[in-house]
């Protein structure tokens, strides 16, 4: 049974503003997808593509609100390295998804089952008698139910968790966290949605609601929006999803609807805890917002900034424990997903990453190169003929910059960066595509900057050696 409704913790000032911007952003995104952009695969609207400007805009709004209101929670803060790694993971997943032919395999399999098998369970033209709104609502509910079980298994089975843990492996919790997606997960998650093909949901409807389900989940990754009354027991909300990202508890797996968690016993309400983001070592009577402890992230914590790009940490951790049969089968949520939520008051201290960047020049250089990677990503979306080489360019850019940011391998990363720039100049020098000409020009301009960063790194390493 869910607890009694708690209307005390209504959205604070910043949450109200952010909610207004979110609603406006979603309405505009759906308008662009339905009315402006051409149809995508199977004639479905390109909802995720239309949502990219909204993702970045709402992140800027949340960043400004966090700074302006001096929001007290560490997890809500935007720091350079964490934000960069979140965005880098999202770009990597979107770029590699078409290169790995995930979309083709998914759509081919779904269409085959829809054409050859669904007739055994539903009569031809069955859904044509339905009102379109009712059909899309039913398809969304069916997809979200399948998403619930897929998501739950990703937390309870180690093999699946090795891919999904990328999304949880950051100690931050803001809108940029929603972009931290796993391309490993994308390789297998589509299998869970094939039952919709069996019951005859048309491919165009399935593609539309699946994109909407993903789009919806973006806004729940925020600390600014508190509780939303009755909606807390119908829809997935920021309060419900904050519980999901608590590394001590694996609950609240629904994507759009939280009712699946209530039905299947995996629901936990944020009101159970004295704190709104965690608990404190102090007694309940003395807990203040500034004292609340952040418990986001994963128990086995990646130590490199580049991990969201190569995404090997979960698999390496799994292979190290291969002899432990229980570990290789049971994911971190195997036992906790259906148990009552019991938070240890003496849980570990906050482990926010030390987000010190080496220099302002390194940060500015990284921002420019990442923006160029975003331009390449957009090129991949609209120009399939250059998709392969742009995917390699984007992935190598993000991976090398992650290595540079890691510190311990900074020298190696800078060497690789110079090589990458030289290769980019060579590969794009005869291109007639504007974005590739831009790559060439920026790469030529970036070479002296990369060489200066390398010289600065040598100098600092030499000074450190002498002082020791």
Ordered list of secondary-structure elements with their pairings:
Layout: H1 13-36, H2 47-68, H3 80-99, H4 102-116, H5 132-156, H6 158-168, H7 183-189, H8 195-198, H9 203-216, H10 238-245, H11 259-264, H12 307-310, H13 313-320, H14 325-329, H15 360-382, H16 387-406, H17 410-427, H18 434-467
Helix pairs in contact: 1-2, 3-7, 3-15, 3-16, 5-6, 5-9, 6-13, 15-16, 15-18, 16-17, 17-18
Note down, in words, how this protein is organized:
By secondary structure, the chain is mainly α. It is built from 18 helices and no strands. The protein has helices spanning 13-36, 47-68, 80-99, 102-116, 132-156, 158-168, 183-189, 195-198, 203-216, 238-245, 259-264, 307-310, 313-320, 325-329, 360-382, 387-406, 410-427, 434-467. Helix 17 packs antiparallel against helix 18 (434-467). The radius of gyration is 23 Å and the shape is globular. The model is unreliable at 1-11, 273-293 and 344-350 (pLDDT under 50).
Would you kindly provide a brief summary of this structure?
The chain contains 18 helices and no strands. The chain is mostly helical.
């Amino acid at each position: 049974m869910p607890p009694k409704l708690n209307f005390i913790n209504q959205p604070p000032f910043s949450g109200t503003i952010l909610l207004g911007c979110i609603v406006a952003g979603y309405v505009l995104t759906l308008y662009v997808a339905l009315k402006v952009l051409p149809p995508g695969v199977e004639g479905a609207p390109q909802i995720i593509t239309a949502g990219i400007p909204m993702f970045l805009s709402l992140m800027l709004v949340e960043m400004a609100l966090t700074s302006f209101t001096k929001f007290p929670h560490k997890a809500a803060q935007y720091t350079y390295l964490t934000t960069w790694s979140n965005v880098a993971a999202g770009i990597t997943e979107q770029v590699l998804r078409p290169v790995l032919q995930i979309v083709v395999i998914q759509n081919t399999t779904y269409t085959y089952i829809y054409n050859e098998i669904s007739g055994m369970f539903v009569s031809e033209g069955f859904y044509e008698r339905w009102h379109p709104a009712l059909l899309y609502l039913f398809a969304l509910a069916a997809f979200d139910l399948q998403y619930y079980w897929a998501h739950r298994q990703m937390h309870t089975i180690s093999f699946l968790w090795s891919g999904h843990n990328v999304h949880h492996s950051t100690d931050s919790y803001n809108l940029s966290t929603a972009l931290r997606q796993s391309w490993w997960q994308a390789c297998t998650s589509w299998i869970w949605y094939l039952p919709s093909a069996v019951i005859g949901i048309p491919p165009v409807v399935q593609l539309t609601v699946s994109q909407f389900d993903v789009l919806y989940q973006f806004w729940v990754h925020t600390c600014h929006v508190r509780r939303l009354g009755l909606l807390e027991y119908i829809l997935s909300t920021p309060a419900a999803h904050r519980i999901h990202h608590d590394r001590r508890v694996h609950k609240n797996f629904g994507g759009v609807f939280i009712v699946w968690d209530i039905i299947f016993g995996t629901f936990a309400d944020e009101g159970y805890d004295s704190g709104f983001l965690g608990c404190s070592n102090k007694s309940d009577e003395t807990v203040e917002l500034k004292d609340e402890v952040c418990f986001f992230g994963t128990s086995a914590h990646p130590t490199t900034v580049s991990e969201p790009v190569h995404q090997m940490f979960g698999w390496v951790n799994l292979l190290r424990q291969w002899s432990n049969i229980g570990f290789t089968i049971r994911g971190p949520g195997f036992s906790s997903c259906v148990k009552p939520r019991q938070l240890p008051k003496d849980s570990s201290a906050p482990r926010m990453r030390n987000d010190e960047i080496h220099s302002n020049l390194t940060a500015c250089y990284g921002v420019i190169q990442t923006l160029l990677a975003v331009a390449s990503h957009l090129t991949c979306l609209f120009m399939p003929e250059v998709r392969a080489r742009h995917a390699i360019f984007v992935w190598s850019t993000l991976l090398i910059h992650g290595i540079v940011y890691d510190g311990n391998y900074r020298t190696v990363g800078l060497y690789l960066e110079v090589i990458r720039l030289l290769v980019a100049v060579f590969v794009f020098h005869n291109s007639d595509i504007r974005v590739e000409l831009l790559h060439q020009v920026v790469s030529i301009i970036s070479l002296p900057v990369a060489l200066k960063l390398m010289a600065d790194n040598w100098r600092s390493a030499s000074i450190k050696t002498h002082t020791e």
